[in-house]
């Protein structure tokens, strides 16, 4: 079996229908070439929304001063922090804190310095302190792991990887459920200088196979199965199919398999053993519980993470050791106002960047207790998150707007049953949060006492780049507010790349960019630096380009409008149109396909696909099901289109370019603002499509 159920980072299965939470105040018009028609509309009028003040004016003033200084002297700011926050094996030279720039794409932080991230995340903390509280699919399945225990176990895993031939610099692919062994395998790689590539366990075997191939990964670590809402997900079977899918048949040397319910070396393996499979629990138990941490040069690779781009195959973004570790640690501490005894819960999956930075690296580098969660917010019922907050006395809780919108549907009672008084900070990430959801989170969950931090960032940025800071900068519903320290955020005119000056009302609209390097930024795409430069640095020379459009208000607060490229954001998951389109075209019936996002009350966006059939094929309910299955097989169930429209042709220019802009307008019902359609080869297709979508 290759397909698994809808498997979202934060929410698990989403019901198909929902109340509408789209705010009544809309964002207002923009002339930008965005695809923001496909996102939930945001309010941006500061006169409508109350601003929730910072605790003291002086704290806010201090932020302004420190932020300005961090921009003016980045080497001074980050150099001092790097020495305070991290333990270095070999200190970096103060003259080499930052080298290179965004124009050349040769950024280096702390080069010459050496450190080990696993050592920093584990060994140096109090061995008796809890490093992790893990809660499995069933609420009574709880594990508590101290720093001492985790240090030893990570060492054993590191020795096991070495025993199977893993060397410094090699890529280890990890395809695992959200169990502690996932975090520990990541840290074990970091300990020996191997580069982990975690592939979200909702991706199909085909998608996993192409990522194994692209990263040239000889070792794959998985588990026999995972559990989500009592559903068993046969991960090992998916890995078997993936290994078959890898083009280079000799590439994968070993598949190392954790058992979700390991019962000791005498037990029988709960899966079929292939010749290159190794039972990880048995191998690990045999290892010495100490593995010397490999000193890594600050710019050596820590991990890669595949993420969707506008075109082509997903990119393997490369994060390096020193800069990423510092940025993950510093943002966790600052944005979440982290104190030493906090129980920090980020309920994202480690298959995405949020899980990397805020389940594993950020909290552990700070010596806090991280909470890891395997299940969904609605299993066994919709009170699950709040029940966990009460039982574990969680102090920070970090989730996505899609989960908040889902839980809002169940009403306040499901929250009010629980004692949430331990909570201090509530975080949101992944997509713009509509003010209604923001207010519900603030009032119903936070009892108007917690700070909501709306954290804007990306796989590429390593950590938060725009966010409010508890007690320091004001919050504003629907806005991620102000840039983080060291982030020189600018709004650029997409037409000419100039910095947009505030208009007569103090507002600026354009695309979001950063003018200066920061330590957490991804340095390259694995094996393809040209692509990295083309996507992020060349569109606006001298700037890092985020791909998002933004409105900045008169107080400097940022409102993210949406992607300006062909990336769709479904339940906070980045999905590239190209991946879904190629999965549709892989079906023999489909000649051409175009995929766009359309607003969805819960998921933010859902996928609408337009397919042109080959001669001899006709539309039928069976065909539509097969097409959806193709997307599930080739990419993953979470990318399955909600709407498929079979069309005699697609809206193309005379030169054959598909005009997705028109398709987006049609699926959003904005047919009175289609713009110029005279450049289409066949303008009459527009009416046909409007009629077809209307009938769906
Ligand atoms: C979107 C997730 C508005 C944005 C950490 C970005 C957001 C993309 C926010 C990156 C936010 C993330 N407000 N939009 N607070 N956070 N986004 O790489 O479009 O999975 O470019 O990283 O999510 O998604 P990624």
UniProtKB/TrEMBL annotation:
Alphabetical list of InterPro entries matching this protein: Ac_CoA_lig, ACAS_N, AMP-bd_C, AMP-bd_C_sf, AMP-binding_CS, AMP-dep_synth/lig_dom, ANL_N_sf
Catalysis: reaction(s): acetate + ATP + CoA = acetyl-CoA + AMP + diphosphate
Residue ranges occupied by any Acetyl-coenzyme A synthetase N-terminal domain in the UniProt entry: 63-121
Highest taxon above the source species: Eukaryota
EC number(s) given by UniProt: 6.2.1.1
Keyword Membrane attributed: no
Record-annotated AMP-dependent synthetase/ligase domain positions: 125-517
Domain called AMP-binding enzyme C-terminal: residue spans: 579-657
Signal peptide: 1-20
One BP term from GO: acetyl-CoA biosynthetic process from acetate
GO molecular function terms attached to this record: acetate-CoA ligase activity; AMP binding; ATP binding
Assigned protein family: Belongs to the ATP-dependent AMP-binding enzyme family.
Database matches in Pfam families: ACAS_N, AMP-binding, AMP-binding_C
Swiss-Prot/TrEMBL keywords: ATP-binding, Ligase, Nucleotide-binding, Signal
Name the UniProt record assigns to this protein: Acetyl-coenzyme A synthetase
